[in-house]
Amino acid sequence: MMARGEPAKRSIPPEQWEQRLSQVAISKDDMNRVVMDFLVTEGYVDAARAFQSESGTAPGVELGDIAGRMEIRAAVQGGRVEDAIDAVNDLDPEILEEQQGLLFHLQQQRLIEMIRDGRTGDALEFAREYLAPTGEEHPEFLDELERTVALLAFDDPKASPVGDLMDASQRQKTASELNAAILSSQRREAEPRAALLLKMLLWAQQRLEERANFPKIVDLVAATPGDK
């Protein structure tokens, strides 16, 4: 219900809204750059090469560097965390030297992989040697460390109250954090511009909805408007 004294919302018919949208000029070059940015950020090397050839849009980075970044991310997603750490240090040792949180999460993932493989003794020794000192120096990591070590108390860690750490989503979370750090070291945004534009769209629609009824886009995949 409208509050007393509050101005009535303006209603914009779908036809008028479509007409206004059609008057917005969008440069093809700008669109191509958004597409290329998405391909580069997400690591679609072959698609980026093909798009560069077809559109003439420069990727802005060496595509070979993208392949290396994707190999590192794939290593974490495949549970080969040591390989990923070695590759990151070869790429830029300052990444892990300067980001203790990221290094902790990679070591945490190494511990999880040992537990997954049933290497209980190795896992205990690794936790004592590498993770416990980090927890003492950085108390903010203690809760995560305790949850991870708790996996060792269960015969079936996956079915335990902390079994979510054994899910593929945990690997993906660590891989995404590492990928973002590599992008940052290369002076690139960790998130594609397309995602940022979608967030801006949602924010703009929310602000406009305070003043008017209009055909909002409710399906971001199809980019189709819903009811006013």
Automatic annotation (TrEMBL):
**Could you tell me what this protein is called?**
CTLH domain-containing protein
What Pfam family is a match for this entry? CTLH
**The CTLH domain covers which part of the protein?**
65-122
Origin organism is Monoraphidium neglectum
